[in-house]
Design a protein that fits this description.
alpha/beta
């Protein structure tokens, strides 16, 4: 019987989708995934707040933050994927791709070479895997060979207004503001950030097909280099 490859799930929600799974070790906010140093392949969900459209802060109070100031989370996640194999997930159009010199994947789908460190990248919509709002997503993966990368459902998913939204708000408003804008309270953040179980399975499969031996890369940090960084406040 073939033993299941162990995977480290980095920057994940406490007691979330990656907890209580066989051969999956979750690294949540308390464990601090910046200190992960192998040896298992990873699925990484580094925080995205400082890499998105409003990286500088809310529209009502802009310029509170600097681009990319996430406490080193994305850099550590990228290094972990390059060194140990696996996959990193971030929102579509993440500015981290340009910041770290990664190729922007085509919105139409398909895997393309991302960098000179064995990385591949693609654009996929989590709506095809059960996400309520569609959620365009960029992936960065490092595997032993390109044929280990899965064929996914490419192109945008249906994230238009539901019939309930149209009946309540009218078509034009429902289409304009989008599904997430009509979800109230704390559920909005939880639903937006949640990883659908079907998509989680895809990411874990990529990691388990990845290289499982440590790769020596010139950008490899030692975990102690992050011990003086501020504590992570939010997760993607």
């Amino acid at each position: 019987m073939t033993k299941t490859i162990e995977v480290a799930a980095l920057y994940v929600e406490t007691r979330g989708a990656y907890f209580d799974l066989d051969e999956v070790t979750p690294w949540d906010i308390e464990r601090d995934a910046r200190q992960y140093s192998g040896p298992h392949p990873v699925v990484a969900h580094p925080p995205c707040q400082r890499w998105g459209r409003y990286w500088h802060g809310a529209p009502r109070k802009p310029h509170q933050y600097r681009l990319g100031e996430d406490g080193g989370c994305f850099a550590a996640a990228l290094t972990a994927v390059r060194n140990y194999g696996g996959v990193l997930e971030h929102p579509k159009d993440s500015l981290a791709w340009k910041y770290f010199g990664l190729t922007h994947p085509p919105a139409a789908g398909g895997w393309v070479k991302a960098d000179a460190f064995g990385g591949w990248t693609c654009c996929v919509w989590q709506g095809h895997f059960g996400h309520f709002a569609g959620k365009g997503t960029w992936l960065y993966a490092v595997v032993d060979a390109p044929d280990q990368l899965p064929e996914l459902i490419w192109g945008p998913s249906d994230s238009g207004p539901t019939m309930q939204m149209i009946e309540r708000y009218g078509y034009e408003k429902a289409r304009r503001v989008g599904r997430m804008a009509l979800v109230g309270g704390k559920d909005k953040t939880r639903i937006r950030n949640a990883t659908p179980l079907q998509f989680r399975s895809v990411l874990l499969a990529i990691a388990r097909n990845a290289r499982s031996t440590k790769q020596q890369m010139p950008c490899t940090p030692h975990s102690s280099a992050f011990k003086s960084l501020p504590k992570m406040e939010t997760l993607a």
